[in-house]
Write a structure and sequence with these properties.
alpha+beta; twelve-stranded mixed β-sheet; about 220 residues
Length: about 220
């Protein structure tokens, strides 16, 4: 497995500008069935979808710093821009720690007040893809904070703030996640990673969709 990821890293190091990185994950929400997530990354964009070219998708425009959620059936493209976050509370000090080597990567944990908010394995290649994931989380942080603030108090967990609001990209500085599990039970596991010829049409918002700016 280590040799495999080493080969992938070498191939990605000589990637042509007209290539796109293709990541395929298996995600699972608590109590739900596993489902596929495909992530396509270029220097200008990142697209997340279920693997269907013609299906709904979420698009990160890395130059404009906006996230666009495309919903074909409703003929709608919801646009999210970075918002303003409140100051971190006094004493806010999450800990990101790395441990033993696993599967060619390194085990990590992100904890706050002694609670493990997320843990998994990250490998130090595909760093541009990891940066793109962090960029999307950063843009959506204000939206995530609003969702957290509007939730009932018994559902307001500090780990949500760590994972989605104030420290959303911390674990991604370690590299590409091979697997990850959050405190809620949500999990993600990398199934494959490849380079494919760039398909510019996959990174365009379809014509005829109403673009609506989401509250930021």
């Amino acid at each position: 497995m280590k040799a495999l990821f080493g080969l992938i890293a070498l191939c990605m190091g000589v990637a042509h500008a007209a290539d796109m990185t293709v990541l395929r994950y298996v995600d699972q929400d608590p109590g739900g069935p596993p489902y596929a997530t495909r992530i396509l990354v270029t220097p200008d964009f990142m697209r997340m979808d279920s693997g269907e070219d013609a299906g709904d998708f979420t698009l990160l425009d890395r130059r404009r710093r906006v996230v666009i959620n495309v919903m074909h059936e409703s003929r709608l493209a919801m646009v999210f821009a970075p918002g303003t976050l409140p100051p971190k509370p006094a004493g806010w000090n999450p800990r990101l720690e790395t441990g033993k080597a696993e599967r060619g990567g390194r085990h990590f944990t992100l904890t706050i007040k002694g609670v493990v908010c997320s843990e998994g394995i990250a490998v130090r290649h595909g760093m541009d893809a990891a940066r793109a994931m962090a960029e999307m989380k950063s843009i959506l942080a204000a939206t995530q904070y609003r969702v957290w603030k509007d939730s009932p108090r018994d559902l307001q967990h500090d780990c949500d703030l760590a994972n989605q609001v104030w420290n959303p990209g911390d674990t991604l500085t370690l590299g590409l996640p091979l697997e990850e599990r959050e405190f809620t039970g949500r999990s993600r596991k990398l199934e494959s990673e490849s380079l494919q010829p760039l398909n510019p049409g996959l990174f365009r918002v379809p014509e005829g969709l109403a673009q609506v700016n989401a509250p930021s």
